[in-house]
Amino acid sequence: MKLRLPGSLLALLLIAAPVSAEHSFEVLGSFLEPETARKEGSRFVAETGLEILLYETPVGERLQYRLLTSIPQDPVYVDQLEQRLAQAGLADTWTLRLPDELPFMETVFAELELVDVNTVAFAAPQGNYIVAGSFREPGRADALVERLSLLNPVSIVRVDVSGASYQRVLVGPVAADEEASVIARLVAQGIEGAWVLRSSEEVVPYVQENQDITPELRGLRMPGKPATPKAPTPVREYEGDYNPAKLKKKSTPFPTPGATSKSSSGEPGRWRTDIAPEFRIFNDPGLNDLDEFYPSVSIQTEYYKTWNGGSDIFAFVPFYRWDGQDEERTHFDIRELTWVHVSDDWELRTGIQKVFWGVTESQHLVDIVNQTDNVENPDGEEKLGQPMINLSLIRDWGVLDFYVLTGFRERNFPGEKGRPRLPLLVDDSEPVYESSAEQYRTDFAVRWTNYFGELEVGLSHFSGTSREPRFQADLRTDEPGIPGEAVLIPVYDVIDQTGFDAQYFVGDWAWKLEAITRSGQGDRFSAATFGFEKTFVGILGTRGDLGVVAEYLFDDRGEDAPVIGEDDVALGFRYTVNNPSDTTALLVWLYDVDSDEYLMTLEASSRIGASWKMILEASMFNGDPESELGFFQDEDFIKLEFIRYF
Question: Other C-beta atoms within 10 Å of 295: how many?
């Protein structure tokens, strides 16, 4: 049954009379200012045609203004409600049951068309919660929620610990037999150190306007490890209140249509697929006189399944890209093909997977397990899958990981028509290995991590074939022996690298450090990256948050270092709009102190509706023509990518 009522009459009824018992509502957003809530509510009404109500509620010491729409009892209308929200880009809403005799402030529109307003009770959350992170600055909690699109549901509660206010990100409630699998899925998102909060009371979420609370489990990236015991003591709850989040890029912010939640009981697992057309435009033909327009398309599918009460997890993530210009960029890779067994104090992961180490923004010195997918993105953030066996031991003194890396993945390079690339073509058909086993050598790594209050530290060691090749020039000749084209041959040395990384948070300051020492590539050398990120919440009175990043990059090889970052300064600005489209932008400027060269990069993204996301990236190089950065002088480009999630 549909109802149509004049807005003024409905507003009077809502203000004058309390809501009947056991009403359930879908929360479309939560705001600090009532005028902002009214403005957004009017827009939601125009896009959905639904009844939207404004509800004032105290959260901590502040008032929040929530936009709600009633959940109907008839399943037909429930489907209709979901469709309308999805079409308006509001698929990531969450459910709230209001207590008896609670009036609304007002409606936020003049006329409306309602579904049946009869509602059914929605059980209050019961059980335990997984604490994914706890932060003093709300902006960092928002960023974590944005990336936790795989877990159901996600909320924020504000707690006071020793006189300081924290925003605690919770996943749940979860049943006791699902705790291990949820923690493993958190690590799949790159978040270590999650722990179980056992509470007999209902958790009331504190939600800011930019947060996405998803109503269902969504596909996943890679299983991983819990970093703390499953049943912390009450003292642990406060002493371990902070867990800095190690966040992977490009987590999927959209649900999988038709996904079920029965995989842990033996039902078929979850599939998620995204297709992404990409367009790269270069400003100049460059030193090699190449094309300026490079279209391509990628497809990535993720399959995820749990069984044995969540103690066993399987993930399969194949990836394929077709490039219209560069044959070498057209490639297929298995990002992950992993079986994980989770126990109370140990985990075993076998297969192909991705492992991320590192905390700094401008470069990741300690991140050495996976090979870089160089043709996918020259910034080094994309990685190839690595065959491995990984055993994690979870103890009170931290987490100890052992890695047996079975086989070596060569770095891929742009082809003759590929961009951006060096002036000389890299011929990777016959690489040179120091090890007689070549690509079949077995490498080893070990890593210990732990956190002490607001300090998290990691200590690692890697022994094996370097993921970063050095190059030797080779002059090719034709059959008569006439010299022809000069090419570069990648050389892979056997190295030993010890790394240390740390994060420390003081208020809204985040201090970060990565340092390594390496032998095997000439004389032993050391390198480090350290700096901070300062977050300004609600910059200039707006809803947006501004993060300022400043880092120093050092390599004691000096000008002989074959990398960017031997004596450089990185300055970045991260802006989060905090709008329903999750619009964010990151601008980084990398400056060489000695040569005055610089590299500028821009990354921005925004959702479009319920199933699309747009990503904009740009790079600009300015260097001496005879330096390594100068080789890319004419390789400035802009990239536009549209991702469609299914």
Answer: 13
Of 16 and 621, more confident: 621
pLDDT at 513: 96
- Please list the residues that pair with 279 across neighbouring strands: 295, 640
Q: Residue 558 half-sphere exposure, CB side, CA atoms within 13 Å?
A: 2
3-class SS at 489? strand
Q: Hey, what CATH class is 263-645 in?
A: mainly beta
Q: Which helix (H) or strand (E) holds 395?
A: strand 386-395
The pair of three-digit structure tokens given for residue 449, joined into one six-digit string: 């991590």
- In the 3-class helix/strand/coil scheme, how is 254-297 assigned residue by residue? CCCCCCCCCHHHCCCCEEEEEEEEEEEEECCCCCCCCCCEEEEE
In the chain, what's the furthest Cα-to-Cα distance?
Answer: 97
User: Mean per-residue pLDDT for 217-241?
Assistant: 26
Q: Supply 562's token pair.
A: 């074959």
**Boundaries of every domain in the chain:** 3-114, 128-239, 263-645
Q: Which of 5-9, 75-79, 312-316 has the lowest mean pLDDT?
A: 5-9
CB 384 within 8 A of CB 352: no
In this prediction, residue 439 has a pLDDT band, given cuts at 50, 70 and 90, of very high
Helices (H), 400-524: none
**What pLDDT was estimated at residue 109?**
38
User: Which one, of 81, 59, 66, 85, lies nearest residue 211 by Cα?
Assistant: 66
pLDDT at 75: 63
Nearest in space to 200 (alpha carbons), one of 248, 128, 139, 270: 128
At which residue do the structure tokens 């160089």 appear? 374
Grouping H, G, I as helix, E, B as strand and the rest as coil, residue 594 is: coil
For residue 44, the surrounding DSSP H or E stretch is helix 34-48
Q: Find the mean pLDDT for residues 295-299.
A: 96
Residue 313 forms beta bridges with which residues? 306, 340
For residue 400, pLDDT over 80 is answered with yes
> Is 563 a residue whose pLDDT tops 90?
no
Question: How many whole angstroms separate alpha carbon 467 and alpha carbon 505?
Answer: 31
Strands 483-492, 425-426: parallel, antiparallel or unpaired by DSSP?
Answer: parallel
Question: How much of the chain, in percent, has pLDDT values that exceed 90?
Answer: 34
Total Cβ atoms within 10 A of residue 36: 15
**Exposed e or buried b per residue across 37-68, where buried means at least 16 C-beta atoms within 10 angstroms of its C-beta:** bbebbeebbeebbbbbbbbeeebeeeebbbbb
Closest CA to 461 of 501, 521, 502: 501
Q: What is the pLDDT of residue 124?
A: 31
Confidence of residue 204 (pLDDT cuts 50, 70, 90): very low
Cβ neighbours for 363, distance < 8 A, ≥ 6 positions apart: 380, 514, 529, 553, 565
409 pLDDT above the threshold of 90:
yes
String of b and e for 254-272 (b: at least 16 CB within 10 Å)?
bbbeebeeebbeeeebbbb
Cis, peptide link before residue 173, omega less than 30° from 0? yes
Split at pLDDT 50, 70, 90, the class of 233 is very low
Q: Which two tokens stand for residue 10?
A: 């409905």
Phi, psi at 629, each rounded to 5°: -70, -30
d(C-alpha 492, C-alpha 552), whole Å: 28
Report the length, in residues, of the chain.
646
Confidence of residue 77 (pLDDT cuts 50, 70, 90): low
The span from the CA of 635 to the CA of 418, in Å, is 11
pLDDT on residue 193? 63
Among 193, 178, 197, 196, residue whose Cα is nearest residue 225: 193
CA–CA separation, 47 and 135 (whole Å) = 34
Q: How far apart are CA 574 and CA 585, in angstroms?
A: 6
